[in-house]
Amino acid sequence: MKRHMILLAGLLATLSTTAQQTFQKATNPASAGFSAARLQRIDSFFEAAVAKGLTPNAVTFIARKGQIVHHKAFGFSNLEKKKPARTDDIFRIASQTKLVTTVAMLMLYEEGHLFLDDPISKFLPEFKDVQVLTPEGGTRPPKTQPTIRHLLSHSAGIPYQHPTVKEPNVYLSDLNGLTMEALIKQVAKRPLTHDPGEQFTYGYNTDVAGRIVEVISGKSLKDFFHERIFAPLGMNDTYFYLPPAKAGRLVELYAKGTLEAPLTVHTSEANRTYPVAGKQTLYLGGAGLVSTVSDYAKICQLVLNGGSFNNVRLLSRKTVDLMGRNQIGNSFVWDRNDKFGLGLQIITEDTRYGDQASPGSLTWGGAYCSEYTIDPKEGVVMLVFTNVSPYAWYGEFVRKFRILAYGAME
After folding, report:
1. Beta strands 254-256; 67-70: pairing state
2. Which of 82, 225, 267, 341 has its Cα between 20 and 30 A from that of 325?
3. Do residues 78 and 89 make contact, with C-beta atoms less than 8 angstroms apart?
4. Would you state the pLDDT for residue 361?
């Protein structure tokens, strides 16, 4: 009986860390299990980084059990104009879009529209005759057809930079009227770089998944996201393309290719201006969104809560459990020694990237330098955003923030 009571107490403690449906500012950091003095280290770190020209800005968000203990802005959203950064600044979040697309796909999965092991070609006929690239440069049929599970775990063999395409072919933005349908048809013509399920290969997988969401739902990804995810969760500052009234809150995009190089305005007009300019027709399920740290924290909390936030349930607890299961077998996410589930990275006991994060924590980031960590054991979500690409200081920026955040826990 005593053992059963201990288990019940543990379960109730776990539920108490994951049931928060709104965010509230903590009475003080200590009330949420953080040291105010140690949180000050985050402030000192980013203030020094801005002063040294290592980053133009940073906006942070740390919440435990729904209690916000650190939400601050540092530096300038526009260096040239000396415009101070604000906590409601809007950032290009690039591959953090992938979590939203994964949630959308799993909502359709729960509604009975698909199996995770359905072949892609069931929904996108252009993939019916997909081939695999051989070492000799030829092609052959795949041993197994790529599936939705392969897409959500980046194991389909669909890279960003394809070895048969000489010119750069990674789309993060577009001003000229490219559509998801046209882009995915381009991707489908390229042979897979390996048999599906064979290894982790990061690429257009989630963009293909986003197109499948459009086909099944009969809605654009923009409309599906807004109607089924953003509006219910109260994510009022997350978009593919910003309304004019919010365009002034978009931070400038910078580049810093080496540690010694100064921060300079990014040379790509498309990457800088796509959220507010151009024909605005490309709804990239893998890279297209812009958001604020506090807005994106809501979908992180939804995952932490087992599928609900704002008193709205988008996914079952069991489906969220499935997201956190290893889907790539013996493969690893690059050199990180971590695994990949459905739409996000799983930090392992032997991680070379997650630092103090509890094993089983979930994370991912974006090419413009933004990142989140969801730690179910500690009941914590933490995010840090800036917009610099390429960024020689990316790893220092995101990992030192996480180290400092965990270092502030009591």
Report:
1. unpaired
2. 225
3. no
4. 98
